[in-house]
Amino acid sequence: MVREALHLLAEGVCDAETIDVVVRCGFGLRLASVGPMENADYIGLDLTRSILRNLAPHLAGGTDFPVLDRLLAGGRRGGASGGGLLDWPAERVAEVARRLDAGIRRNLAARTPA
């Protein structure tokens, strides 16, 4: 994340303050409640791979994600299929949705002046 933030700064895409605001108020709200692996499963590994294939050419790491390809080839698409990077018993999707919602609401409330 820092590498990409520095790249955005170096390319003049935005300033450092904007980068911090976007991270804190964007995906930072989500990742405080759901980690990156659980989030990838939650939204689906097929969507995750599609996002990465579209974004990764603009990043330094390339577009090959053999872990995702192997899981998808085995039918493990994430929460919708019962497993992906993590195992997803039926009740986990609803539990993650509740935790994600509560975490985002809590984080937004903490940022809102009284």
Structural descriptors:
2 domains; single chain; N-(1-d-carboxylethyl)-l-norvaline Dehydrogenase, domain 2; 6-PGluconate_DH-like_C_sf; mainly alpha; 114 residues; 6PGD_dom2; 3-hydroxyacyl-CoA dehydrogenase family protein; 3HC_DH_C
The general outline is flat
Low-confidence stretches: none
Give the beta-strand count: 0
CATH classification, class level of the largest domain:
Mainly Alpha
CATH architecture of the largest domain: Orthogonal Bundle
The percent of residues in helical segments reads: 55-70%
Distance between the termini: 32 Å
Query: What is the N-to-C order of secondary-structure elements (H for helix, E for strand)?
Result: HHHHHHH
**SS summary, helix count:** 7
The CATH superfamily of the largest domain turns out to be N-(1-d-carboxylethyl)-l-norvaline Dehydrogenase, domain 2
Overall pLDDT metric: 83
**Count of individual domains:** 2
- Which structural class is indicated by helix and strand composition? mainly alpha
Oligomer: single chain
Question: What secondary-structure arrangement, pairings included, does this model have?
Answer:
Layout (H helix, E strand, L loop, with lengths): L1 H9 L5 H10 L1 H5 L4 H8 L1 H11 L10 H8 L16 H22 L3
Explain what the structure shows.
The chain is mainly α. The chain folds into two domains: 1-31, no CATH class; 35-111, N-(1-d-carboxylethyl)-l-norvaline Dehydrogenase, domain 2. It has seven helices and no strands. The longest helix is centred in the last third of the chain and has 22 residues, at 90-111. The model has no long low-confidence stretch (mean pLDDT 83). It comes from Actinokineospora soli. Pathway: Lipid metabolism; butanoate metabolism. Residues 1-88 form the 3-hydroxyacyl-CoA dehydrogenase C-terminal domain.
